[in-house]
Structures are given as structure tokens and as C-alpha cells.
């Protein structure tokens, strides 16, 4: 083989290897930042950064945030909780563990053998989130600790440094879903396949936010709330839109529409009331 052909072949192989490595890197980055399939995607857009979840993940992130808001905890607590659940289960309510903790269960992979509760209790995400927060607030000065340190003091993980990988995402989702960042959480969803049930939305809302008294009017659920609590409720509704067949959310001069892929838009929405509109069903 001539020297020129040898060099040409070496360059070609080097470029192919670089492309392969680059392709793997891109795939990993896309997997980390975009976890949704098809048209359904939820996004927190905070401080110029965007982070994404599937609607299923968004449901659990909003639940964790709602429990934190209900307990009167600071957004930092919710940041730690969401980041921990992202690292432990990718925000899934798992009914299995791993080799390091075969009896681990739920959003936070809590273990009955370590006193977190029964398996049935841990599989209840409200119970799981509540017990995580109860343990977190017992950590002295948890708000000023690095996230990975605070999370580890609660979880006692074999890989404590891993929690830091989710810190930016946890902070963004917590800021949106606790209502600290208005109109910053949105979901882009395919059309609802059936009619939404206002009674089911009211029931879940009163579980997530027990102090509220949602009222039903036709296909709408009305919730009186203001300031950050109002935005926590409004963005909870968006995060749960796919599961409950929610088509529209109105609050504080902003409207989220299921078919709008550009997030919230400025409207004449009421300032002291969240209005959640349910889908009527195909062809209705």
C-alpha cells in the first residue's frame, strides 16, 4: 500500500471513529434532556434554560411539588426532592428495586427494611413524597447544604455523588411547579382521545392541595388561589393535562392551550382564579 493511500485510509478511519463517538454523545445528550416520545413533551423554561419530561414524569414532579407546597416548605426542599426522584427512578413509581436494594420501591426507592413504611405505603406517591420531606427537614441546615449532601443524608445511597447530576433540572422543575416562576411550565400534547372528567380533576386537586375547594361548572373546574399558590395549581393542571384530558388552563392573564406548542399566551384570564377546562371528546 502506498504511503498516500495509507494516510488517506487513516484519515477516513479517524473520521468514522469521530462520527461514531459524536453520534453516541449526541444520543446520550438527547436522552438526558428529552425523555418524551412522539408529540407529547413537557418543558420547564426557567432562567433561559429548558428541561424536558414526559407527561408521566411531569405528573410525579407536580405531585412532589404539591406536597412540598402543602407542607409550607421552601422551593429548595422541592428542588432536592425532585432531583432525588429523578436520579433514583427517573420520576417513575417503580414496584421493584435493584441488587443494592432489592426491597426498594416507589418514586424514591425507599426500603421497608430501613423503616420507610410498608411496601403498599411506599407505593403511594403522596406517602412517599411526604416521608421524604419529613426526613429532609430533620437534616440540620439542609437548605444551605449542597444538594448531593442533603439528598444523601436522607437516602443513604451507595452512589451519593449522582444526585448532583440532576440539580439543574430539579431546581427548574421546582421553581415552575411550586409557582415561583409563573407561566414557565408547559406541555405540548396530542389531542385528547376522550372526554375529561371534572370530578376526577377536583378529587385529585383536593388530594394534592387539601386547603383548596375546587368547584365544578359544566366542563370546567374553578379554583380560587393567588400568587405563587395560584401558579402552582395552574402549572399542576398543565402537568396533569394528558392524564385527565385537560384542554385549557386560564390564570392571571395567561392561558395554556393543549394544541398550542408555544407555551402560555397573554389573554384576559382571571387574576384570582384558575379555570381548568376539560376536553369534550372527539367530535364533540
TrEMBL record:
Natural source organism: Arthrobacter horti
Protein name: Heavy metal transporter
Amino acid at each position: 500500500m502506498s504511503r498516500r493511500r495509507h494516510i488517506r485510509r487513516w484519515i477516513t478511519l479517524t473520521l468514522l471513529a469521530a462520527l461514531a463517538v459524536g453520534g453516541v454523545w449526541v444520543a446520550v445528550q438527547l436522552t438526558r434532556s428529552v425523555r418524551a416520545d412522539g408529540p407529547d413533551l413537557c418543558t420547564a423554561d426557567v432562567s433561559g434554560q429548558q428541561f424536558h419530561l414526559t407527561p408521566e414524569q411531569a405528573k410525579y414532579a407536580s405531585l412532589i411539588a404539591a406536597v412540598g407546597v402543602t407542607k409550607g416548605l421552601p422551593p429548595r426542599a422541592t428542588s432536592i426532592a425532585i432531583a432525588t426522584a429523578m436520579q433514583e427512578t427517573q420520576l417513575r413509581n417503580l414496584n421493584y428495586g435493584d441488587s443494592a436494594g432489592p426491597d426498594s420501591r416507589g418514586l424514591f426507592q425507599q426500603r421497608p427494611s430501613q423503616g420507610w413504611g410498608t411496601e403498599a405505603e411506599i407505593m403511594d406517591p403522596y406517602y412517599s413524597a411526604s416521608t421524604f420531606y419529613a426526613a429532609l427537614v430533620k437534616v440540620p441546615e439542609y437548605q444551605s447544604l449542597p444538594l448531593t449532601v442533603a439528598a444523601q443524608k436522607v437516602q443513604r445511597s451507595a452512589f451519593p455523588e449522582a444526585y448532583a447530576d440532576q440539580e439543574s433540572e430539579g431546581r427548574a422543575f421546582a421553581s415552575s411547579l411550586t409557582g415561583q416562576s409563573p407561566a414557565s411550565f408547559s406541555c405540548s400534547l396530542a389531542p385528547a382521545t376522550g372526554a375529561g372528567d371534572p370530578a376526577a380533576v377536583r378529587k385529585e386537586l383536593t388530594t394534592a392541595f387539601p386547603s383548596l375547594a375546587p368547584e365544578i361548572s359544566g366542563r370546567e373546574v374553578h379554583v380560587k388561589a393567588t400568587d405563587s399558590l395560584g401558579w402552582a395549581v395552574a402549572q399542576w393542571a398543565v402537568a396533569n393535562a394528558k392524564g385527565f384530558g385537560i384542554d385549557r388552563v386560564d390564570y392571571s392573564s395567561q392561558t395554556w392551550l393543549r394544541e398550542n406548542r408555544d407555551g402560555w399566551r397573554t389573554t384576559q384570564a382571571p387574576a384570582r382564579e384558575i379555570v381548568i377546562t376539560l376536553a369534550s371528546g372527539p367530535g364533540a
